[in-house]
Amino acid sequence: MSALIESNHEFEPVIGLEIHAELQTRSKMFCGCNADHNSAQEPNINICPICLGLPGAMPVLNQKALEMGILAGLALNCQINESNIFARKNYFYPDLPKGYQISQFDHPVASNGWLEISTGTEENKQRVRIRRVHLEEDTAKLSHEKKYTLIDFNRSGVPLLEIVSEPDMYSIDSALDYAQKIRTVLRYLNVNSGDMEKGVLRFEANISLRRRGSQALNTRTEIKNLNSFKAMSLAIEYEITRQANLLASNIEISQETLGWDEASGKTYPQRGKEESHDYRYYPEPDIPPIHVSESTINLLRKQLPELPMQRLSRFIQEYGFSTSEAQGLIIDKRLADFFEETVKLSSSPLKMIYTWIIGVLTGYLNERKLTFEVSPVNPLRFAHLVDQYSSGRINDFTAKEILKELFFTNKDPEEIINERNLGQISDKKFLANKIDIILENNPEQVQEYHQGKTSLFQWFMGQVSRETHGKSDPKVVRKLLIEALLKRNKE
User: Fold this and answer.
1) How many CB atoms lie within 10 A of CB 8?
2) Is the dihedral of CA 172, 177, 183, 186 positive or negative?
3) Which of 83, 107, 109, 295 has its CB surrounded by the most CB atoms within 10 Å?
4) What is the dihedral of CA 332, 334, 338, 341, to 10 degrees?
5) DSSP letter string over 155-186?
6) Over the chain, what is the mean pLDDT?
7) Is beta strand 256-261 parallel, antiparallel or unpaired with respect to 221-226?
8) What 3-state class would DSSP assign to 250?
9) H or E stretch including 256?
10) Distance between CA 419 and CA 214 in Å, rounded?
């Protein structure tokens, strides 16, 4: 929340979100062209007369896209509408070759749903109402150069799911929580990848301000095409502050569509905000009304996976996790799947598996810009590694080095341990001798330690680890080192 809003508490933001999610179908919404426009392909390769909007081209509905829309509606607690009518949404932009977009308006796939969000604390929950979930086709992609604009029609006609909320959010954190949870639901359904850097998930925020305590809905602005959570949060924050400053100066808010300039951190006007009548919706004459039977809805309902909030509750009850720990796992379905597969294959303590996945493996994947979906380390080898560590055969340092190696080899951790003789050294006599030599060779550090510089203890531990090439058992070394230092102090 902006400093201005926080300081005077005079105004309250009212936020609604429109979320555009490209559906992971093989073909486009109304033709057979390849819908994969995000891979490294030449521009204008996946095109045909239909997605170019050439005269006489006849669109045909993608059944898989319709099924995905129904699944999303069911997951978002919506009423699935048996009658689906597509409409022509008329507006004229260079990225829309037909001069209109085939979309849905008053007969969408689903409507009247809700999603529960957090409004600050774990106990404080709120339902955000979902007005509708509808299908449409995506537009072409424009690339603006200094003196001209390039257009790529590969994206034109890609199936798009639009999820429209009611204006039920009253803070940036609430809007962010809602957007993140929608993304997670869509990924669990496997209808959208959630890869926002590829532009497959985009947000449009509708924002207005009102005096605190008022229930009025005032003039709103819409910020278009926000393609990251960070951009969405910053754009909403800036717009709240901008509107608050105008209202504080008794200047009316103009209803308009805004862009977001990431470089300057400011919104900027694009055009006057349209209402639905401005688009002159009318039924698409080339696509007859689609009837979705109750049996079809029930069949798709049975295909619903365990959804994020269901999994969150189960992880808390079944594994004894806190809400924050469980949320850290379920936010990514493939991460949660990896965890559960590892638990089945490992004999190590549950919290140890959790710590190694969240604290170590996730970090290594992030360093290499990899996800759990393409992780070169599978649950079986990871379980074997954690078991070798929990049994005391290898120490923390060695386990992490082996994990790094697992990214580049198909060997099992045990095979690596045997080949490189990486087993942990726990022999007390051997380690005590190493410690004595280290203390004998570093009398100044021993004296400083006894004079109160206790931080040198970790330095001594490091010296033992270096002498044993990282294979010493730290628990045994710690105990022996304490005894050796105490003995020398008495002498």
Assistant:
1) 11
2) negative
3) 109
4) 120
5) STT-EEEEEEE-S-B-SHHHHHHHHHHHHHHH
6) 89
7) parallel
8) coil
9) strand 256-261
10) 72
Going from the C-alpha of 159 to that of each of 31, 50, 55, 66, the distances in angstroms are: 10, 14, 21, 9
Segment 382-422, tens digit of pLDDT: 999 999 898 888 888 889 989 999 999 888 998 888 887 77
Tell me which residue has tokens 């300057």. 264
DSSP output for 67-134 = HHHHHHHHHTTPEEPSEE-EEEEE---TT-TTSEEEEESSS-SEEEEEEEEESSSSS-EEEEEEEEEE
Percent of residues, the chain, with pLDDT higher than 90: 61
Average pLDDT over every residue of 59-79 = 97
- For the chain, the distance separating the N- and C-terminal CA atoms, rounded to the nearest angstrom, is 63
The pLDDT of residue 66: 97
Which residue, chain included where needed, has tokens 């204006």?
A: 167
Cα pseudo-dihedral 26, 30, 34, 36, rounded to 10: -70
Q: Where are the domains of the chain?
A: 3-300, 308-420, 428-490
- Architecture in CATH of 428-490: Orthogonal Bundle (1.10)
Higher pLDDT, 30 or 216: 30
Q: What's the CA gap between 405 and 391, in Å, rounded?
A: 20
- Residues linked to residue 118 through DSSP beta bridges, in sequence order: 125
The one-letter amino acid at 19 = I
Q: What is the DSSP letter of 414?
A: H
| Residue in the structure block whose two tokens are 């798009």 | 160
Which amino acid is present at 145?
E
Amino acid at 78: C
3-state helix, strand, coil in the chain (%, to 5): 45, 20, 35
State pLDDT tens for residues 311-327: 999 999 999 999 999 99
Compute φ and ψ for 482, nearest 5 degrees. -60, -45
Say which residues have a Cβ less than 8 Å from residue 337's Cβ, sequence separation at least 6: 372
Best CA proximity match to 23, nearest among 152, 186, 184 = 186
Reading the block at residue 126, the tokens are 């709120």
Question: Per residue in 458-488, is it b (16+ CB within 10 Å) or e — as a string?
Answer: eebbebbbeebebbbbeebbeebbeebbeeb
Q: CA of 435: how far to CAs of 178, 464, 491, in Å? A: 56, 7, 16
- DSSP reduced 3-state for 336: helix
CA-based nearest residue to 208, from 257, 245, 260, 244 = 244
400: Cβ–Cβ under 8 A, 6 or more apart, which residues? 360
Number of residues that this document lists for the chain: 491
